[in-house]
Structure formats: C-alpha cells, structure tokens
Amino acid sequence: MDSNTLLEITREFDAPLYVYDANKIESQFNRLNNAFSGVGKLRLNYAAKALSNIAVLRLMNKLGAGLDTVSIQEVKLGLMAGFQPESIIFTPNGVSLEEIEEAAALGVQINIDNLSILEQFGNKFPNIPVCIRINPHVMAGGNSNISVGHIDSKFGISIHQIPHLLRIVELTNMNINGIHMHTGSDILDIDVFLYASEILFETAKNFKNLEFIDFGSGFKVPYKAGDIETNIEELGKKLTTRFNQFCEEYGKELTLAFEPGKFLVSEAGYFLAKVNVVKQTTSTVFASVDSGFNHLIRPMLYGSNHEISNISNPKGRERYYSVVGYICETDTFGSNRRINEISEGDILCFKNAGAYCFTMASNYNSRYRPAEVLWYNGKAHLIRKRETFDDILHNQVDVQELFDKSTPKAIVK
Questions:
Q1: Which pLDDT score is estimated for 184?
Q2: Residue 37: its pLDDT value, please?
Q3: Does the active-site annotation cover 131?
Q4: What are phi and psi of 323, to 5 degrees?
Q5: H helix runs in 19-53, sequence order
Q6: What is the pLDDT, as a whole number, of residue 143?
Q7: Domain count across the chain
Q8: What pLDDT shows up at residue 115?
Q9: Of 235, 265, 295, which residue is a domain's last?
Q10: Are 215 and 327 within one domain?
Q11: 151 and 108 in contact (C-beta within 8 Å)?
Q12: Residues 6+ apart with CB under 8 A from 198
C-alpha cells in the first residue's frame, strides 16, 4: 500500500491504527500454493494466532485455506467465520483433557502433543481420528522464544518416545490419521527443515492409516529492504519431490499440510502511530508516539526489527531517531533509525504489523487497544472498533459498597 492511501485511512479512522492489505494476503497464499503445485493434495491451514480478527478469518476461508487453532476460542471463531469443522485442526499445548474433548465434540481434527493426554483421549474416544505432534529435536527458528522443535522444548512428543507412543496406540486401538511437527519460526536453512522432514517421514512409517502429514510452518518473511527470507520456491521444489516419493513408498496419496501464519499476514499489516513529542537529549533524539509495546510488543519481546517510515514527510532529509512509546518503562520500537525528518504530529508507519501485533496487544497502563481496518477491493473497511473507557471497565466489578462503610472511631480513655 502507498503512503497516501495509508494517510487517508489514518485521517478517517485516527491513530494509532492497524491496517491490513487483503491483496497482499491473497498474493502470499497464492505464492505458497504455487510453490507446492506439484503435490496432488495440499492443505494450507492458516495459523489463527497470528491475526484472529473474524474478517481476516473469513477472507482466509474464501481463499480456500483451512485453519490451525491452538485454543477452543480460536476453534469457535473459525466456525463462526464459516470454516467447516473438518477443515480446522486443533493443536493446543498443555491444555486440559476437557478442552480437547470440547473441540472433538465440535468435529474438528484433534492434534495431540503429549503421551498423557494421548492415552487418556485414546481410552475414552478410540474411534475419533487423532493427529500426533512429534518433536524432531531439531533446533530451528530465529529466536529462542520461537524455536519449538529442540530437545528442551515443551512442544510435541519426543522421537525417543516413539516406542511408548506406539504402545499407547496399540493398547487403545486409536485411529492415527496424521503426523505433525513444527520446528520454529523464521526458518532460513531449508536443509535443516528437510532434515526434520526426514524424521517425520520415518515416524510416519509406523502408522498405516495416515491421511496427511503436517510440516508446520515458520517461514521467514523480510523485515526490511534486502532482508533475507525463506526461499519458498526452492523448498517447494525439494519437499514436493521427496513427499511424492514417500507417498509412493507408503502406497497411498497423502495430503501435505502446512500452517502458515506470519507468512500470510505479516507483510500485509501496517501500524500507524502519531508523533506526540520530538525530544532532544544530550545524546539522542527521541520520537515519542501515541502508542507503545502494549500495541506492538515484538521489538521488546523478540528483538524484532520493524521498518519505520515517516509517511507524513517522505521526501524530508534523513536524520537519526530512537522511536519510543508512551508506556511508563523502557518502551523502544527502534534505536538510532534513519528516518525522514520527524515533526510533532507526523504519522509514522511500522511495517510487518500483520502478525502477532494486535493479537498480542494489551490494556497495559489502562490504554485502549486501537481499531483494525481491512483494505479490500480498493476500500477501507473497519473490522474492529477502537476501544473506549467503557471497554476498560466492561468486566470489572465495582465493589464500592465495601469501602463506603464508616470505620468506628477509636475510643481514647
């Protein structure tokens, strides 16, 4: 999207504001589809946790995606957005058996990642098809917080526990219809991903009734000009060849599944914030905006680099700024960034704000969460209202009567 369009949208809906470009989401979806066009059966399950606004879920459903969910709430959102139960996979971690039972009752695909729940579920519901999440013990991902396939990860059933897993399946007579892994986010080394895939293929040979193999996702997107990213086309070519070969060996055409989240929506998102103060100190020029890590926590949490531009002054001379927020503690979006000269009142644009930005937003410091807008068919559509003070109070219970009672005075003798 161009700067003028973003400025017009900001003038209409005010800042701070999240804007999502539906055209970019569709082009990313098509790119991934095309990269794996050589696979007979391909299913792209959008990872709802990246951006779960129901309008975006409806868009994904229209494009033909399935849905990857990690909570019963995301399952229900998916059903409300029009996804058929069989196109939703439920891949939680550390949840209760009751939550998994609730999801199963809704008819979605269950994906279990620990032996305890697997055994309990198999004893109660041996006829419900189950996918198993494997931990391949492969370290992948751009940050330790988003690397989930290594040996110390809480996710998945260890490949060293396969004998125990098989014993549970045999004793409960469970129907295992899928095998799954997810090594982490921001994957760059395709060979590491393919190595982990070989572990998954080897594990799959233990199960005779598979319908699909799910390779997770974690594809890296570029965060700035010239940034490196996962070569989807190369991965598509190499994994397609190996997957088709495995299907021949297995004796059945299986579905190849992925769970892209960030890959589909990250670059489609823009976060717009207004500059409140330009503050010169002895060593730094701060541009303080009307937002903070309550709206965009990724730089503070992951050290992520979101490109920041001044769309109010795109031709101004570049100067160095540290862009900070209004949260009452260290709250930095970027340090010593070269940005076109900033004045108070300017609108700054943060790119790659589609994934894990609004979904990780909070009311910290009792601040409101911003509105969300979807740019679709050349028009801006409001898909979430900006919060108000009533929203802050909505679920609070005022127990004023506890403090209105008069306190007996002490008697002094």
A1: 64
A2: 97
A3: no
A4: -90, 120
A5: 22-35
A6: 40
A7: 2
A8: 96
A9: 265
A10: no
A11: no
A12: 242
356 known ligand binder: yes
329 is in an annotated binding site: yes
Catalytic residue among 131, 247, 328, 349: 328
195 is in an annotated binding site: no
Determine the 3-state secondary structure of 333 from DSSP: strand
What is the β-pairing status of strands 269-280 and 285-289?
antiparallel
My answer on whether 124 and 238 are in the same domain is yes
Compute the radius of gyration of the chain from its Cα atoms: 24
Residues 90 and 138 in one domain: yes
pTM higher than 0.90, yes or no? yes
CA 23 to chain CA centroid, nearest Å:
19
CATH assignment of the domain containing 312: 2.40.37.10
Distances (CA, A) of 20 to 67, 178, 351: 19, 33, 10
If the chain, 413 residues long, is cut into consecutive pieces of 10 residues, what is the mean pLDDT of each piece? 96 98 98 97 98 98 98 98 98 95 98 96 97 83 42 82 96 97 74 90 96 92 86 95 97 97 97 98 96 96 93 97 95 96 98 97 97 98 98 95 74 65
Give just the sign of the alpha carbon dihedral 71, 373, 301, 220.
positive
**How far is the C-alpha of 235 from the C-alpha of 240, rounded, in Å?**
8
The pLDDT of residue 154 is 83
User: Could you tell me the CATH number of the domain that includes residue 52?
Assistant: 3.20.20.10
Domain of residue 67 covers 36-265
